[in-house]
Structure formats: structure tokens, C-alpha cells
Amino acid sequence: MKNRIQLSLFLIPGLLLYVGLFVFPTLTGLFYSFTDWDGVSPSYAFVGLDNYKDSLSSIVFRKAFGNNVEFMLTVVIAQTFISLVLALLLVRNTKTRIVLRALYFLPAILSSVSVGLIWAFMYDPSIGLINYGLNEAGMSSIARNWIGDPKIAIYSIAAVQVWAHAGQMMIVFIAGLQGIPAELYEAARMDGGSKWQVFRKVTWPLLAPSATIVVAYTTIQSFKAFDLIFTMTDGGPNYATEILTTYIYHTAFGSYSFGLASAGSMIFLVLLALLTLLQFKALRADRVSY
Amino acid sequence: MKKNKKLILPLVSMLVMSILLSACGGGDNASSGDNGSSGSGKVTISFMHWRGEDSEALNKTIDAFEKENPNINVEMQTLPSDQYQSTVQSKISDGSVGDVFASFPGAQFEAFTKAGLFTDLSGSSFLSAYNPKLIEAGQHDGKQYAIPYQLVYNDPIYNVKLFEKYGLTLPKDWEGFLALCQKLKDNGIIPIAFAGADIGPGQFMNTMVMNNAPSDDIFTKVEAGEAKLTDEFWVKTLTQIKELNDKGYFQQDALGTKDPAAGALFIQEKAAMLASGSYQLAQNKQQNPNLEQKLLAPITVSADQAKYEGVHTTTFMLAVNSKSKHPEESKKFLEFLSNPDVASDYANQTGQNVTVNDVKYDTPELQVAGEWASKKTVFQPRFTILNGDNQKAVTNSIQAVLSGTSPEEAAQQAQAIIDQHIGK
Fold first, then answer.
1. pLDDT of A50 strictly over 50
2. Nearest Cβ partner of A26 from B14, B253, B264?
3. How many CB atoms lie within 10 A of CB A253?
4. Could you read off the pLDDT of B167-222 as tens digits, one per residue?
């Protein structure tokens, strides 16, 4: 009993920080979501559920939600696949693996604002490095208006998101791969399994915990993306890359509708929680143990 | 153990959302001045604004002010303009910082007025130092709440030497403007460098719409539901912008070009016009000292129908915080900034025109804007749209036509968004 009390005391500072810095702002946001507060005035009026109704019926909110889903699916699929391939290639004991791992991981330590600014410059259709390189390499037909064409802008940003974080997820997969006992592979090989069969029957099922982490983390990370889109396109052109976080930002600080933005945040919170829950449930079913 | 795992999900979700919200809320972590009288009887006032690039010039101004007023100390705090837009209200609302602060015209000025953050400066003697027409943007209900200090002409810039080389004269109507663009294009010059990805639509719409809707309150009417973007004035504006794009008068893929890249095309003299404003003149000259630049506005109607020659904006609106503990000292600082000699120094050091009368400009770039003082200009139409989302809907309709949507449809889509905001 004494031990329990002592342990609880250690929790208090963390708990205070959590409540003060995270729970309190969330509850404050919830409160303001029922008001017409403009973010500046000392006074506000309660408007009930109006902000929620307005958000859900807003053309821009709906467009942002659609873009959010599109962005998230693109990033989750591409990032999981690429990071897995990188991990499978770099888990081997080659001389260059340390250097290559570091190189692939490097973008993860850069600030996303810097990444956004640099990539926006590289994507520029007139003076950007990407189109210049493609033209010089005789591949002008591939050159595009990467972030200026509403049809492809969101995918161009998704590519940057994947570039920035695939290396990070590669490390998770490498850790998972290194945790698989070598004797399982030996047994599979002795049974005459092909490389693909070994991967399908041994590697992939035992990588499920790592995959769960990668997919869940990538889903959350891409769903709440903000910095990259804000710096690269600010939601444009013509709302083609507007997602829920940029919509919330523009509503709060562009049109001084803090109440409406708070309602948008709350809806966003619920969506994110549901998404995370669904994922954990779906992916947990795949887990195997040995 | 199972229970704990179940707890993790909502906690993780809540954590993520909380971080997002707390970031949006913008904690006040700026270092504040003592904002009070020290033991020596010296008063410190805080001056908050977004123009970090003017810090050097303003520091000299502050030094001169402190020399003249030894009992007042001015502490300057700057924030990047996007952060200023999102966090300044939380910083200045209790009066602990920002005794003197700057505000953007339009949505921010409206919100601050509603929140009662401004001290009424009406009747202050230093107001007579300003051109009365140019400080109207700082008025509300007949009261002068802020003084717009900077003056910008939001008209495209043109390369004088290139115009002379091809024997081009300033067009007086739409046909003339198209002919001018065609001549430049025929000679391998990009007629207009257009930053379609960021500032281009917001800047260029002003001169394009000024004669299609020759009034200073057309967008006020749109926001009041008394006019619509689907009316002729805006559909015509979009049609003309589309025409410029379809005829290749903007650089290729203009919608993906950002401000620095469009500026580079003009500075390198690959483009004859730059769809921005007078604020860009000094920077262009710095990067290409051979440039000779002036301003020109496309006239979208026939010569006899043209009411306005260009567009002006008055911004960097200086105000005294209504919660300031030192309003008199703060007003004294504004009074000092209103002195034509002080304003001249500021203008010449920063390359920005000002609204103060009798200012002496040193450089040809500043004098260019000075020439426009006698022309018939209208206050920037985009800034008369007070809701940020509505502003975005309007400028996005320009991006929509540049990406292939018909002007009618783009206008309709933007109007649908504005309709949702009307009455809220």
C-alpha cells in the first residue's frame, strides 16, 4: 500500500502537465465550439449546435474531408510499402547498410516547414529542379505542374510526406525483422519454401506488430498533416489541397470564426479517434505469435 | 492489462488533438517589457508589429525618439506576418504588451474593432500630418482607430526599357492591353509574370475588377447579399483573366508559380510585367540595378468607361492598445512617427511609401509610387472583403478558371461558398 502511494506521487507532475497542457485546452476548445466567439472579443454568445451543423454542411469542410481521406490513403499505402521494401533491403548485413539507413532516415530529422519550402521550390514549373532534371534527361513528357495542377497537387505533396517519413518507418520494420528468430527461416527453407512463400508465411505474419505501428502511426500522422500543405500550397489551388487542419486554421485565423473552427476541431478529433480505433481492431486480428 | 490497452486509444487520440488545439490557441510566450514605470520614473512601452524587415530602420527611429523623450523607453517586438495574423490578439488583449501595435486592414481590423482593442485617436493633432484620404482604412463609425502608415499601389509593375525597345505605349482600353501583350509575346517576352500559386490572384484581381465594377463597395455588397459573384462584373473579370491565360500572356503553368519565381522572371527581364505591386519595386531594383520600373494597370473596359487608373492599399495600421497603461506615451510615439522627417527616413530606409504628407523620397522606385498620388485610384477591392473565407473563395475562383473551369461555373462555386457565410 505504501509502495502504491509512493508510485502515485511520481505520477503527479506528469498528470498535472497532461491536464494543464492537453486536457484543459481540449475542453476549452469543446466549450468554444458551442459559441460564436471570434477569437478576439471579450464576449461571445452560445449558439448550441449551430457550429457543428455549419461545419458539416460547409462546402469547403466537405471538400477538405475528401482531400484528407485521399491524402491519408495515398500516404499510408505508399509509405507502408516503401518503408517495408527499404527495410527488407537494408536488414541484410551489407557494408553500406549503415550509411544507407542513415541516408533514408535523414529526412525525418528535418523540420517539415523547411521540407515544405524546399520541395515547393523544387516543384516550381519554371525554375524548379524536378522539371529541369526531367527536361534535361529527355523526359519532358513526365514534367508536370506538380503543385499547380489541382488534379495532381495532393499526390505531389503526399510524395513529399512519404519521402520525409518512409525512412523513419523503415527503422520500425527493421526492428521487427530483426526480432524474427532465424530458425524459423531455416525451417521454412528446409521445407523448400520459395522466397515469396517465406515472406508470406513467415515474415509478414510475424511483422504484424510492426505493421500495426507503421500503419497506425502513418494514418494519424497523415490525417493530421498541416505544415507541409500550409507551406507548399496553403490549401490551393482552388481548395485542391485543403484538408481539415488547414480548413480549421483558415476558419480560426483567416475569418476570425474561432467557435466554428473549434467545432471543426472537435469533429476532427472524433474522426481521428474512430480511425485509430478501427485500425487497431483490424490490425490486431492479424497478429500471430510463435 | 487489457483495460490499460483499451485506455491507450482514447488517450493517444486526445493527445494528438490536444496538441493541435493548443498549438492553434497560441500560448503567450513572448517576452514582455516591464510595461511600467521603473524606479527612475522611466516608462517602457511595447511596440508590436510584423515587419521584421524594417527592424533596423525602426530601431534608429526608436533611438531618436528615446533621445527626444528620455523618460520613455520603447521595446520593439516583431512576429512573422502569418504568426502575427494568428497570435497577436492573444498577446495584446490584456495590455501587457503591444501598447502600440500594428493591424492589417480588412478582417483583422474589423475583429479588433469589435473586440474594443483600439484607443480612439480621433482629434489627435498628429492626424493632420497625414493625407486624410489615405487613413480612411483606419476608421470605423467615424472614429479614427488606427493610422495606416504604409502606402502600396497594387498595380502591375512594368519594365520601362523593354516597353521602349518594342515601341509600346500604355494601353487605354482592354483591346490595347491585349495588343500590347501580343506584341511582347511575338517578341519572345513573357507579357505578365503571374504568381498564381500564392499572391498572384489576390493582387491581380484588384486592377482587373476596378473598372468592371467601378465602385469602392462592390464586395461589401456581395458580402451583404446585395450583389453576387455570378453578376456580370465578376464573370467578366474571370473571363478576361482566362483570356490572358489562354492566349499565353502569363508564363506557362502560372498556377504552380510562387511569388519568388514570378519575381525572378521579371528581374531577369524574361517577363515585361509583374502582377504584384509597388512594394516589390525596391527589392527588384536591388536584385537587378539595371531595371527601370513603373506601374501600369490593365484597363478592362473601353477608354471612356474607365473610372479608375489603379489601386492603392494603406496598411501597417498603427494603433494604441485600449488596455495600455501608458496611452499618452504611446500617442507620443505615434506623433513622433508622424513627423515628415522621421517618416522620410523610414520610407527611404525600407523602400516603402508612406501616408504622411511632405515626405521626401530618395529613390526613383519610391518616386514612382509618388507619381501615383495624383491618379484616380480605388482602395484595394480584395481588402474590402471582410471575411477571410470569402476572400479565399473569390481568389480561388481565379485559380479555378486558370485550371480550366468555365468563368460562369467558377463564379457559381465561389458564390455558393459565400452564400453559406452570409448571415453568420
1. yes
2. B14
3. 23
4. 999 999 999 999 999 999 999 999 999 999 999 999 999 999 999 999 989 999 99
Residue A274 amino acid letter: L
Residues 19-38 of A with CB under 8 A from B: 21-23, 25-26, 28-29, 38
The per-residue pLDDT for range A79-115, each reduced to its tens digit, is 999 999 999 998 876 777 778 888 888 888 888 899 9
- Smallest CA–CA distance from B90 into chain A, residue: A40
Cα B93 versus chain centre, distance: 23
For residue B163, the Cα-to-chain-centroid distance in whole angstroms is 28
Q: In terms of Cα–Cα distance, which of B342, B348, B291 is closest to B318?
A: B342
Question: Kind of pairing, strands B310-320 and B293-295?
Answer: unpaired
What would the DSSP string read from start to end of B213-258?
S-STTHHHHHHTTSS-TTSHHHHHHHHHHHHHHHTT-BPTTGGG--
Half-sphere exposure of A241 (CA within 13 A, CB side): 29
* Cβ atoms A37, A255 nearer than 8 A: no
| CA A75/CA A279 separation, integer angstroms | 15
Q: Quick one: which of B413, B409, B393, B406 has its CA closest to B246? A: B406
pLDDT recorded at residue B318 = 97
Helix (H, G, I), strand (E, B) or coil at B49: strand
Residue A175 in contact with residue A210, Cβ under 8 Å? yes
What's the grid cell of residue A114? 523547411
CB A227 within 8 A of CB A113: yes
Any CB–CB contact under 8 A between A48 and chain B?
no
- Give the mean pLDDT of chain B: 89
Q: What's the DSSP call for residue B172? A: S
- B134: helix, coil or strand? helix
- pTM, two decimals, is 0.87
A68, A155, A164, B234 from A160: Cα distances, Å: 15, 9, 6, 36
Q: Pick from A11, A26, A40 the residue to mutate for testing the B interface (most B CBs within 10 Å).
A: A40
CA A91 remoteness from chain centre: 24
Does residue B301 belong to the interface with chain A, where contact is any CB pair within 8 Å? no
Q: Are strands B190-193 and B271-274 parallel, antiparallel or unpaired?
A: parallel
Residue B179, chain A, CB below 8 Å: the answer is no
